[in-house]
Amino acid sequence: MKNINFFVYGSLREGFFNYDKYLDGKVSKKIDAQLNDMSLYHMPYKGYPAIIPGENTILGEIIVINKDDYEETMKAMDEMEGFISENNPENEYHKVLLEVENIETKEKQKCFVYFYNKDKDEKFDNEAVYVCHGNWKKHMLNK
Fold first, then answer.
1. Distance (Å, rounded) from C-alpha 139 to C-alpha 43?
2. What are the distances in angstroms from CA 71 to CA 2, 27, 67, 142?
3. Which among 30, 57, 86, 135 is least surrounded, fewest beta carbons within 10 Å?
4. Residue among 15, 12, 10, 14 nearest 42 (CA)
5. What is the pLDDT, as a whole number, of residue 88?
6. How far apart (Å, rounded) are the C-alpha atoms in residues 130 and 138?
7. Are 135 and 51 a contacting pair, CB within 8 Å?
8. CA-to-CA distance for 59 and 137, rounded, in angstroms?
9. Global pTM exceeds 0.90
10. CA 22: distance to chain centroid?
């Protein structure tokens, strides 16, 4: 069975702390990509981003994990993202398959995406910062 790639838009992007911790040396390919019909927020009280359904385009990368590292890396990322199981109301992030577009070729592929469970976050509605341009990396580098 072919491994499913991941779409990352926040701290798992190259140059950020969770890329260094979870993905560095385990990635065979990174592809600039976008995810449509979402909204991006920065959560300053947590230090990382969230996506929820919306009308914007989110910029990030499709991450292709080395075959030998896939299972171990996926398990570690699930734990880091607070993903317990599919549709579990206690997930911090739900892991869902969504269609992601390669920016260069316009090809689309289904990727795992960590999607924020804001129902579990009492601070979100009052404290999360909307990032209208959809690029958390740009948001953080321009602070």
1. 12
2. 12, 13, 8, 35
3. 86
4. 10
5. 95
6. 13
7. no
8. 9
9. yes
10. 13
- Start-to-end CA distance of the chain, whole Å, equals 42
pLDDT tens-digit series, residues 4-51: 999 999 999 999 999 999 999 999 999 999 999 999 999 999 999 999
Residue with the two structure tokens 């491994």: 3
Tell me what pLDDT residue 2 has: 73
* Cα–Cα separations (whole angstroms), residue 44 to 14, 63, 83, 127, 131: 20, 25, 21, 8, 12
Residue-wise burial string across 86-115, b where 16 or more C-beta atoms lie within 10 A, e elsewhere: eeeeebbbbbeebebbebeeeeebebbbbb
Q: Give me the pLDDT at residue 4, please.
A: 93
Q: Would you state the structure tokens that stand for residue 106, as one six-digit string?
A: 């316009």
For the chain, what's the residue count? 143
User: For the segment 78-133, what is each residue's pLDDT rounded down to a tens digit?
Assistant: 999 999 999 999 999 999 999 999 999 999 999 999 999 999 999 999 999 999 99
Amino acid present at 73: T
